[in-house]
Amino acid sequence: MIRLEKRPTPSRFWLYATPPVAVLLTMIVGGILFAVMGKNPVEVIRTIFWDPLFGEFAFYLRGQLLVKAGPLILIAIGLALGFRAGIWNIGAEGQYIMGAIIGASVGLAVFPTENRLIFPVMVLAGAFGGWAWAMIPAILKTRFNTNEILVSLMLVYVAQTILAKASTSFLKNPEGMGFPGSRNFSSYPAAQNGYLIEGLGLHWGGVAALVTAVLIYILLTRHIAGFQIRLAGQAPRAARFHGVNPTRLVVLCMGISGALAGLAGLFEVTGPAGQITIDFNTGYGFTAIIVAFLGRLNPLGIVLAGFLMALTYVGGEMASTNLGLPAAAVQVFQGMLLFFLLGVDVLTNYRFRLSGGAAVAGAK
Amino acid sequence: MTGTVRDENSGASRPELLKITGVTKAYPGVVANSDVGFTVGEGEVHALLGENGAGKSTLVKMIYGLVRPDSGSMRFRGQAYAPMKPAEARRLGVAMVFQHFSLFEALNVAENVALGMESPPPMRELASKIRAVSEEYGLPLDPDRMVGDLSAGERQRVEIIRCLLQDPKLLIMDEPTSVLTPQEVEILFRTLRQLSAEGTAILYISHKLEEIRALCDEATILRRGKVVGTCTPRERSARELAEMMVGTSLTPPERHPGEKGEVALGVSGLSVKSPIPFGTSLKDVSFTVAKGEVLGIAGVAGNGQDELLLALSGELKVAADRLRILSQPAGDLGPVERRAKGLVSAPEDRYGHAAAPDMSLIENAFLTGSQRRGLVKKGFIDWAKTRAFAEEVIAEYDVRTPGPDVAARALSGGNLQKFLVGRELNQSPSVIVINQPTWGVDAAAAAAIRQAILDRAASGAAVVVISQDLDELLEVSDSFAVLNEGRLTKPVPVQGLTMDQIGLMMGGAHGMEVAHHAS
């Protein structure tokens, strides 16, 4: 019989080995899935993991990696902060949308200004939008003890409804000939989030993601707020004994994760997406949950995980256009990654023991 | 004075019931039992004596089928005995009352008893059986009462009656008296003697020596997983038993009672609603502790001890003037501000309340030491200074650990407690509140902790010790009070107190007589 046995201290080896092992298992089981679907598994895996980096179109696709990784990293870092504290903000997608809408609204309200200050103001408005949307579950939790998972998740659907309304009515491009969607920021230079380095796909969102990773890393390891966040997640009663105010912590963590998601939304809508449309959001808010865990809730790990997830996005698109793989198969593939990650993660704190019934004589 | 091993059979005129030979059980990193052997006769009250971590619990878990030995053999009633699970052990006539009860507070007594049975009879029949057994053995218990409303002693009776209904040949009791008042202990002992006279053997686990001397026929003494001696407890003094158990001679803590100073902690009319379901709310608690004084607060577990600690540490806030630290109102302050004023506290639960189990000792040192030791600068943590603080506590309080970087959960209970008590004491506090300072701590470490507390009091700190160990309280306290159903008796000087008086202060035996409050 195989039994799980708790380790006296968490295994450092498995802490770092878990992500690569999970990726490997995903490739194997995903390969089997693709084979069952009648595709050549080796070719599909190569298309997803190899071609974007070293294939024929790598010069273009490599740039796409940072474009996709930027928002994922930015959102995931905020989420990780809350997850570390045991605060489960599942609604980053909604905060991302609201950040984009509020930020874009500010810019579009003064269209067509040429004042360069409008972009920083929009960035602040975007962060505010995400923050405010996250405050709803935060305040409901601290005042009425509601479950932030449910409330934040349900608010995603509210945000999507507002987004649909925005793109078809109040933010609709008056010169858009009746098509849904706002004005395009590519023709609004003062408010546009253009590429800083074209070939790398680096725009202000990518810069924000990398800077945030470093800042949050410092917060978690050096600052007392980071200590309190970690403490509250690991030992809530010890946190109260230490003197953590749970209400303040919920507001802080939800606020930071909401603001970062809002920022990501603003950078996306003024940059790669270009305009508010019904479906400009591509599920980054949900995928970021996987990225947060894949990166071990560690800001620097999340940067790596963000790039890995971006790879499956870019490669997955390649696979669906070039090899005719359904988009759902790629999503299953991404989901598998989280599944195996959480599964293998058990080995960090537990180990397998073979236990024969009657016992082995002379075991030390 | 160790290892007085006697011939196993001498003096045992009783027929053999349970014989254990060469049992070994190892866990990763620790051998819990090594080549353990002893014999229990029918109707014998047999003590398993040893410090925490000596391997008593593992041994009885093997007898009860919860754990399987790596090697060795057991015989029960003349048959080879190797239970795979507790149900099998129960079927063969082995029952066990655990130290920590497994009862559902929202169900009544009869329902709880039924849940622990293989094939419970209809509820009405069961209730009348419970009444019959409880009367027969002098354990008053109403089958219709909600377990959440019962005292710890009454809850234990539920567990005992659950066992007795199955008519066991061997009853295992793990530290049964740690939750009882002296009077309740007397009732329990009468029941156990009656059972023994009727032929039920009792395997009695404890580290309380006087009890073992009063109750047990034979004793097997364990140290570090090995049998180091057997004896007839009545023929030995408590000190001899203690030295066999610990392996060294023990010195009681030294007291240097100083002059009592001004009042350092004043509590008046403190009433707090318990934040814990089925917890005990505090009702009008008042006391003062002067500089250099140790106030001992006794009481059976669940009478408001946890709530009192929360209210004193600042985790529960009260009106400002209900609690004064050095004459300044502090009731409305949280833990951070109270520490700043000089009050430090050590909760009972070490793994999760006093310490974060998965965090390192350095991080746990920071947990309460951050303000008074100046470990934060402008919001940033000075880890080098924190490490030095952790190392200081480890060295000064003889904490056995590979280093300050290990997780708190990797330390044994006693070692972690030494670290946690040291962490508070080394913050030059003016008021110290400790709940259960030596619970689950081995005798040597417990002595060290008590000495450290007394030393702080001698140098002018006011100390509140909340404990269920009366011997400990009598040893360290200057004044003594009892917490009973959330009310605190008026503190009285320890000198001249008798066990009887203390028992009456504790409310006597629940359900047996009207509570008298000594004044």
TrEMBL record, chain A:
Cell compartment(s), UniProt: Cell membrane
Its membrane topology: Multi-pass membrane protein
UniProt xrefs under Pfam families: BPD_transp_2 (PF02653)
Keyword Membrane: yes
Source domain of life: Bacteria
Keywords noted in UniProt: Cell membrane, Membrane, Transmembrane, Transmembrane helix
InterPro entries: ABC_transp_permease
Principal place of residence: membrane
Transmembrane segment boundaries: 12-37, 57-83, 95-111, 117-140, 149-171, 202-220, 249-267, 287-311, 323-344
Protein name per UniProt: ABC transporter permease
UniProtKB/TrEMBL annotation, chain B:
SMART domains, alphabetized: AAA (SM00382)
Domain (ABC transporter): residue spans on this chain: 18-249, 265-510
Entry superkingdom: Bacteria
Key word Nucleotide-binding present: yes
Annotated CDD domains: ABC_Carb_Monos_I, ABC_Carb_Monos_II
InterPro entries (alphabetical): AAA+_ATPase, ABC_carbohydrate_import_ATPase, ABC_transporter-like_ATP-bd, ABC_transporter-like_CS, P-loop_NTPase
MF terms in GO: ATP binding
Keyword field: ATP-binding, Nucleotide-binding
Pfam families found in the cross-reference section: ABC_tran
Protein name per Swiss-Prot or TrEMBL: ABC transporter ATP-binding protein
